[in-house]
TrEMBL record:
The protein, known as: tRNA epoxyqueuosine(34) reductase QueG
Domain of life of the source: Bacteria
GO molecular function, one term: epoxyqueuosine reductase activity
Domain 4Fe-4S ferredoxin-type: 179-209
Database matches in SUPFAM superfamilies: 4Fe-4S ferredoxins, ARM repeat
Organism: Paenibacillus oryzae
Key words of the record: 4Fe-4S, Cytoplasm, Iron, Iron-sulfur, Metal-binding, Oxidoreductase, Queuosine biosynthesis, tRNA processing
GO biological process, one term: tRNA queuosine(34) biosynthetic process
Keyword Cytoplasm among record annotations: yes
Length: 387
């Protein structure tokens, strides 16, 4: 007879050698309260659209796996600080990638660890069956991690591990092994509300409640025109947002540098904006293809780079933005360049906008250009294309 408690202890002892930073076991029972929560979340229109749409599959492991007996949750910790980060200076402005997009794509790293764990289990228990997932699977990674005792479900929505903080990626494996479940963490946020207060867009509508459509992380991953309100709030973020984790006191001093694949390349994590604008598809794939920021392609990142240049109000960016306004084949990029030129202002930007107003054929870009022209503070009379 297999001693499942002993196997679990041995598995926990082996985790570090398998490159896993924390591991826990959850029962494979349906996630009943999560389902109610997800129904309400949908009714309120607060989904991002990146979630698995089938709420039954998201909350019932038995619909994903024949006769599930347990779910093993894993966490891998990632760095929160760049070593000697390059400065963002006038004429050489830089954007910032969220920490979860530094280093190698975490989907690959966690899948590698889950595969190692699977081999470890199969060596000990022939007949082991597993189904592993990271982020793109049907289950809620956070709900599984919470149930498996990895951390608590915090007011900023993150799973916070008492020992690792929230700079952790999550993944899991449904199994046919009746491993005894762990106990959820009882620690919590207490009376702290720092993350809710710091969220730039009010996306954290309550403790642990996110309106994903207002979350900057979501907005940076969309592909269309962004509203004026959100473009201003994006600042120089190129992908994702870390504000509600950076302000969290539990994360103070937590910076995990031991996972070799997850260590950042400064020039990719905090890249110069102008060269990013000029990257072709192939160049972009070579530079960012191995990171998790590339999953939506280069368009959202280049659009965000254009927004960042507008937010910096650095006049040296004007010729580059004019080039996008005139020549970029993507209407969203042309429209966003118009917004940025309007934000920086000045004669050169204004003339280029007037010219574009006469030449632009696309409706989306045209509407952004006319808004930008309206926003110009100084009327320009000496352009080649006066109004
Ligand atoms: C869709 C998605 C997003 C969307 C929506 C995020 C969200 N909070 O819902 C967007 C694009 C905005 C996003 C952003 C980010 N994401 Co994301 N995202 C996901 C994804 C694919 C699904 C999440 C989901 O279903 N959300 C719906 C909510 C309602 O459910 P949930 O958060 O999964 O579950 C919790 C709640 O339901 C809550 N709950 C249950 N019942 C009740 C009842 C009440 C009353 C309340 C208040 C709460 C509550 O408890 C559950 C457990 O915590 C997961 C991967 C996965 N498959 O799970 C990654 C995931 C959540 N993302 C992750 C990360 C890292 C991020 C970012 C930090 C990236 C970045 N730097 O920009 C931000 C953080 C934004 C934030 N404050 O949450 C990690 C989280 C790691 C961690 N330590 O928690 C995950 C788990 C990916 C991974 N495998 O590592 N993400
Ligand atoms: S990721 Fe940014 S925008 Fe989203 S909830 Fe956190 S602080 Fe707010
Ligand atoms: S900032 Fe405070 S309230 Fe927000 S997650 Fe951290 S401890 Fe919880």
């Amino acid at each position: 007879m297999m001693d499942w408690s002993k196997l679990k202890q041995e598995m926990k002892a082996a985790a570090t050698a398998l490159g896993i930073d924390d591991i826990g076991v959850a029962s494979a029972d349906p996630f009943v309260t999560l389902k109610q929560r997800l129904i309400r979340h949908r009714e309120l229109g607060r989904e991002s659209g990146f979630e698995e749409p089938d709420l039954d599959r998201r909350t019932n492991p038995a619909l994903l796996f024949e006769d599930p007996q347990s779910i093993i949750a894993i966490a891998i910790a990632y760095p929160s600080k760049l070593v000697d980060p390059p400065k963002s200076e006038p004429g050489e402005r830089r954007g910032i990638m969220a920490r979860s997009a530094w280093g190698e794509d975490y989907h690959h790293v966690l899948r590698d660890r889950l595969a190692k764990l699977e081999s470890w289990l199969k060596e000990r228990v022939p007949g082991t069956r597993v189904e592993s997932m990271v982020d793109t699977g049907a289950l809620s990674d956070r709900a599984v991690a919470e149930r498996a005792g990895i951390g608590w479900s915090a007011k900023n929505c993150a799973i916070i591990s008492p020992k690792l903080g929230s700079w952790i990626y999550l993944g899991e494996m449904i199994t046919n092994l009746p491993l005894p479940p762990d106990v959820p963490v009882t620690e919590g946020c207490g009376s702290c509300t720092k993350c809710i207060d710091a969220c730039p867009t009010g996306a954290l509508v309550g403790p642990g409640e996110l309106n994903a459509k207002r979350c900057i992380s979501f907005v940076t991953q969309t592909k269309d025109m962004v509203s004026d309100e959100f473009m201003r709030k994006i600042g120089n973020r190129l992908y994702g947002c870390d504000t509600c984790q950076v302000v969290c006191p539990v994360n103070r001093g937590k910076n995990w540098t031991h996972q070799p694949e997850l260590q950042p390349d400064n020039e990719l994590a905090k890249p110069l904006l102008v060269p990013l604008l000029e990257m072709g598809n192939r160049q972009f794939k070579e530079a960012y293809g191995r990171t998790s920021s590339a999953w939506r392609g280069r368009k959202p990142i280049q659009r965000n780079a254009v927004i960042a240049l507008g937010n910096f109000k650095d006049a040296s960016a004007i010729p580059h933005l004019i080039k996008v306004l005139r020549d970029d084949p993507r209407p969203v990029l042309r429209g966003t360049a118009a917004w940025s030129l309007g934000r920086i202002g000045g004669a050169e930007a204004a003339c280029a906008l007037r010219e574009a107003l006469n030449n632009e054929q696309d409706e989306v870009a045209l509407s952004a250009i006319s808004e930008a022209v309206k926003s110009l503070e100084v009327p320009i009379r000496d352009c080649e294309f006066p109004l």
